[in-house]
């Protein structure tokens, strides 16, 4: 059965999953790259971004990489908030802008982009962005169909993850707590009082200083 | 040199160090005992509360107990907020009430209780509660003198710890993150953006599910 999975969602000690003041130049606002600094040295990330064979065998292979690698296993489609596609809000000012992800986005699957302002599907390499004004249940139904028997990844950002957690649609939630205090931005945990009652939680601290929490939903 | 140390300050995943709705009957508000559940099974706690020899050798002795035991080593005085003494606010309705801690409080040292409403010192067993309207710097100067060359423990609550962190007076900060989402209460991290820049941070996850963070202040 298709599961809905959240992977590598990084939050600060004070629970912010993204910073304040997001722009095209600063997708994470004042947080900058700090929430993902644990991810960049991993073999998984290096091999995603490296050119040709030069990236082969490079990168760390410890617990951070194990979690990074799990992100892509068995995924057939993604659901993301509009903010993960681009910084715009309201009606699209320019449909020619093709998002933050370049000509070969790393999703390699259908991606349902949640927005109140639908626009035509956008095919970039192996990724198809589908812009839909849909509830969590509707988006999951569509993505499940697109995933063809594989799982669906819920790609964030935090407000979207929160909405799906509130609707109790998330089966697997991997949160990475980074030891920084951001002070402002968008919080992950707001409105989720008692979340732990619906999940088994496993926790491991990485030698790099981050803490991986895996929330596994009790079988339905 | 005397250090100011915070130990075993437990917070939820969403950063609340105490719940909402504190009363005499519910010192932690709606959080109940959940933030300290990691602490109760430790040998350190069992031997603090056990009667005579029957508690000898009982209790867990893993990483949680190691951190629990470190709480009391080399401490000569404590500073605490009024809320850790009792739930009252404003002028003391009744000085006959002697706080939450019984006839032999577990501090065994002078304790500076920060309050805008001073009252006479209160001696209970080996503990002397001294009620002072003092700034963090003033309270630390007094407690340092009382500690007689040993360290001073900053006992909480979260608002008090925050004030001392803002004043950059804390040398050692042990925070325990408990995998629950409280949703409401008093937050520890508010107003402390960039705190990590002043500390080295070491993190370990306990098999019991909590995560211990040790913040060590760079030498002055």
TrEMBL record, chains A, B:
Domain spans labelled Bacterial bifunctional deaminase-reductase C-terminal: 9-193
- SUPFAM superfamilies linked to this entry: Dihydrofolate reductase-like
Gene3D superfamilies under this entry?
Dihydrofolate Reductase, subunit A
The record ties this protein, via InterPro entries, to: DHFR-like_dom_sf (IPR024072), RibDG_C (IPR002734), Riboflavin_Biosynth_HTPR (IPR050765)
Under Pfam families, the record lists: RibD_C (PF01872)
Per the record, the domain of life is: Bacteria
Q: What is this protein called?
A: Dihydrofolate reductase family protein
Supply the source organism for this entry: Cellulomonas edaphi
């Amino acid at each position: 059965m298709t599961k809905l999975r959240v992977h590598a969602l990084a939050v600060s000690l004070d629970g912010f999953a993204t910073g304040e003041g997001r722009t095209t130049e600063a997708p994470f606002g004042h947080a900058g790259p700090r929430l993902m600094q644990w991810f960049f040295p991993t073999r998984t990330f290096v091999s995603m971004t490296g050119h040709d064979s030069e990236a082969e065998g490079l990168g760390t292979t410890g617990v951070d990489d194990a979690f990074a690698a799990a992100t892509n296993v068995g995924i057939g489609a993604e659901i993301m908030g509009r903010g993960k596609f681009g910084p715009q809000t309201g009606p699209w000012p320019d449909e020619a802008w093709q998002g933050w992800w370049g000509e070969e986005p790393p999703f390699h699957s259908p991606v349902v982009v949640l927005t109140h302002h639908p626009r035509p599907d956008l095919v970039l390499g192996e990724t198809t962005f589908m812009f839909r004004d849909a509830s969590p249940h509707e988006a999951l139904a569509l993505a499940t169909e697109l995933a063809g028997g594989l799982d669906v990844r819920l790609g964030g950002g935090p407000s979207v993850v929160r909405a799906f957690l509130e609707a109790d649609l998330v089966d697997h939630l991997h949160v990475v707590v980074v030891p920084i205090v951001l002070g402002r931005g968008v919080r992950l945990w707001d409105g989720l009082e008692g979340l732990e009652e619906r999940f088994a939680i496993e926790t491991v601290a990485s030698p790099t200083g981050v803490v991986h929490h895996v929330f596994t939903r009790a079988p339905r």
